Task: inverse folding
């Protein structure tokens, strides 16, 4: 009996592994053939019939976000369901970091939700592994109407000439400041300051009001510094160049040692990675760094009007580091059984004024120019600030970095660890550079395998 | 057994087959077997296989032999750091939790009108203790503007400590949370205490032994099997702790609260290095197995079973 049980177990195991192998293979062939228009037609026809005969279509939709986004998205989805009674949309949402953990596990299991919110930094990885459906066919058949969307937006979600993701809006990195505190200290905030100016202003504000300053230690700041230095972060890290990281960690150390900086232990507790607990919200600091689409949520949580200035640059910068980031992509999963229905929803989400009346640019300024014009007057004062800021940035912005390579997540985590060591005074800038650059290079090499 | 077998040629209905004594037993345990295979045995075997591969969760695994284990032991300083953190946590949280559990059990063993109520109340933290809600509650309590600091201020101590942000205090907030969840061990201690014969205490009292002597000479030795059982149980639990580190501190500050399981999870799903994550999992299986084995070996020296005299 023991032997037979063992045999059955092994047989089952074999079946499972071979199934998994088959699954992987079909996925690949799918991506290869979807380019052909005839195949596209058949898929479409099949989807059409199944939708008409099968009754209700169920779509899964998932996104990362904050409370404001969760509320408005759910409201928009409800509206869509009431207009399309044959579509049932199940929603799921988490915060940013949990989202990617969950999504990768879902992707490995072949259960990616039909519609997934995608980020510029992850687009490459997911497309390369055949997880995302080619949307070009839906664009060419007009299921997704792109006539009022700028070509560059479609391009930003395209890889090798095929569109895999539609951006819902554009974002730009920004620095926030507390207007009341700045006024009390009697300083004026320039449109875009240098790190040295930020240092001096922070010092003045601390001396006059006792409010501390935040110096961002994340990967966004690294990217900005590299750009200001006339290069790109991942170009430097893959070749092991230290130039920009020298500027980054030396500035980091300078701020970490300053009295006016928020203490490392309080910062660890506040966790600026989560919108709702950013230190500016309870005035632990007078400034904070974020992407423009987070502004609405931070302002609402803080309950006051916060000032916006451009993300700082370095003194004697070689180029303007500010960029416009096509953000909040939506993709359809390659494993989805209802791609057509999913594409229809995307079309509505992007192009309909009534949907965007609810969403109100929380994900960024709508990419459909007619929709953007239509909702701009309706947007409240807070959203207007975002509209204005993005418009201002678009005048000076330089092109964004190429999509991040695989291994970005781990490099980012490494960066945080090293930055913490500097903040707690356990490592000097030189030690940090000596650890970060080679280790990041190793991670990127490993991930590229 | 042979007599029970039906003649081989005759056709049986499904019900008859299932009713055969040899088969019926298996049918009854089938739900467990299916669950065990689907959720434990097969995933475990697969994970052992994956631990020898480079498995970017979005791509097909590639066999790389012992590379993951080599990286783990020689090329990943963070691995040893989180291993140390986890050992520290287990080393302090498990004994302290058991002491707490025993102390409360001793209080509750005397039956009174309210003892049932108290037992339920003290057990409550263990049910809800590893939940997300409690983790968030803990985070608020130990925040720099939280209730712990407020209480400290009331009694005249410095009330502005960032418990969760300081490298020397953060892990202790998690250990305190663990101690608070003493309920299940407490219940087991309670039943253990009740089994100790009253006549032993009576005899000791007659001989003039005081309370402390009775505790160390009677209660503790008689309780050693229960202590042993709880110790093994809690040790395994301690190594598996995840929620506290993941939600309350995210491993911060300076990775001083980054538990082994959280780092394993990060590797598997955040960095998409599932193969490496599986290798880490199997090392943990080995360590926990080894510690349990050592405890079993030392059993003879300190665990007292009444039957053996």
Result:
């Amino acid at each position: 009996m023991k032997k037979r049980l063992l045999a059955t177990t092994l047989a089952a195991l074999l079946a499972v592994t071979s199934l998994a192998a088959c699954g992987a293979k079909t996925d690949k062939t799918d991506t290869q053939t979807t380019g052909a228009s005839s195949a596209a037609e058949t898929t479409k026809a099949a989807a059409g019939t199944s939708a008409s005969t099968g009754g209700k279509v169920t779509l899964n939709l998932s996104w990362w976000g904050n409370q404001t986004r969760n509320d408005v998205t759910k409201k928009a989805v409800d509206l869509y369901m009431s207009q399309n009674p044959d579509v049932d949309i199940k929603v799921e949402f988490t915060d940013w970091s949990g989202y990617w953990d969950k999504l990768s596990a879902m992707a490995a299991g072949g259960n990616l939700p039909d519609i997934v919110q995608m980020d510029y930094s992850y687009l490459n990885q997911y497309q390369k592994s055949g997880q995302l459906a080619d949307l070009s066919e839906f664009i060419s058949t007009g299921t997704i109407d792109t006539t009022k969307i700028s070509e560059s937006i479609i391009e930003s979600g395209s890889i090798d000439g095929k569109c895999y993701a539609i951006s819902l809006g554009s974002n730009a990195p920004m620095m926030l400041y507390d207007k009341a505190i700045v006024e009390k200290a009697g300083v004026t905030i320039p449109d875009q300051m240098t790190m040295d100016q930020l240092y001096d202003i922070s010092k003045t504000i601390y001396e006059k009001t006792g409010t501390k300053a935040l110096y961002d230690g994340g990967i966004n700041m690294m990217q900005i510094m590299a750009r200001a230095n006339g290069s790109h972060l991942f170009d430097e890290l893959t070749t092991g160049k230290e130039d920009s990281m020298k500027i980054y960690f030396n500035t980091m150390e300078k701020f970490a040692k300053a009295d006016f900086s928020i203490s490392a232990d309080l910062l660890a507790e506040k966790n600026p990675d989560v919108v709702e607990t950013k230190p500016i919200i309870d005035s632990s600091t007078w400034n904070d760094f974020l992407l423009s689409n987070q502004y609405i949520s931070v302002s609402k949580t803080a309950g006051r009007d916060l000032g916006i200035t451009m993300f700082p640059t370095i003194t004697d910068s070689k180029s303007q580091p500010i960029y416009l980031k096509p953000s909040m992509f939506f993709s359809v999963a390659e494993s989805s059984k209802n791609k057509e229905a999913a594409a229809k929803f995307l079309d509505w989400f992007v192009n309909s004024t009534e949907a965007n009346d609810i969403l109100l640019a929380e994900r960024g300024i709508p990419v459909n120019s007619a929709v953007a014009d239509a909702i701009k007057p309706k947007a409240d004062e807070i959203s207007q600030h975002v509209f204005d800021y993005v418009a201002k940035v678009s005048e000076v912005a330089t092109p964004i970095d190429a999509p991040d390579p695989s291994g970005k997540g781990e490099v980012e985590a490494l960066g945080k660890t090293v930055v913490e060591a500097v903040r707690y005074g356990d490592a000097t800038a030189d030690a940090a550079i000596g650890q970060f650059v080679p280790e990041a290079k190793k991670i990127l090499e490993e991930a590229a395998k | 057994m042979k007599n029970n077998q039906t003649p081989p040629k005759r056709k049986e209905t499904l019900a008859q087959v299932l009713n055969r004594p040899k088969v019926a037993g298996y049918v009854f345990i089938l739900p467990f077997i299916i669950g065990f295979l689907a959720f434990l045995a097969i995933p475990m075997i697969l994970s052992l296989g994956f631990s020898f591969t480079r498995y970017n969760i979005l791509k097909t695994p590639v066999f790389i032999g012992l590379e993951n284990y080599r990286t783990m032991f020689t090329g990943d300083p963070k691995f040893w750091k989180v291993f140390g953190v986890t050992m520290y946590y287990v080393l302090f949280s498990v004994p302290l939790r058991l002491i707490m559990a025993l102390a409360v059990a001793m209080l509750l063993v005397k039956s009174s009108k309210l003892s049932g109520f108290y037992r339920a109340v003290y057990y409550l933290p263990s049910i809800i203790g590893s939940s997300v809600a409690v983790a968030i509650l803990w985070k608020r309590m130990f925040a720099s503007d939280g209730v712990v600091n407020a209480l400290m201020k009331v009694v005249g101590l410095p009330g502005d400590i960032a418990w969760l942000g300081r490298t020397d205090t953060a892990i202790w907030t998690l250990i305190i949370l663990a101690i608070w969840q003493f309920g299940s061990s407490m219940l087991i201690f309670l039943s253990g205490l009740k089994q100790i014969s009253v006549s032993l205490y009576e005899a000791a009292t007659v001989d003039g032994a005081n309370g402390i002597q009775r505790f160390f000479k009677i209660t503790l030795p008689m309780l050693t099997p229960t202590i042993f059982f709880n110790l093994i149980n809690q040790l395994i639990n301690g190594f598996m702790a995840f929620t506290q580190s993941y939600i309350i501190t995210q491993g911060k500050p300076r990775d001083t609260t980054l538990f082994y399981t959280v780092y394993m999870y990060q590797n598997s799903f955040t960095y998409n290095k599932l193969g490496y994550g599986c290798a880490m999992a199997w090392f943990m299986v080995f360590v926990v197995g080894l510690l349990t084995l050592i405890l079993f070996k030392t059993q003879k020296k300190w665990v007292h079973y009444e039957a053996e005299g």
Observations:
- Chain A has a mean pLDDT of 83.
- The radius of gyration of chain A is 24 Å.
- Residues 2-33 of chain A form the longest helix (32 residues).
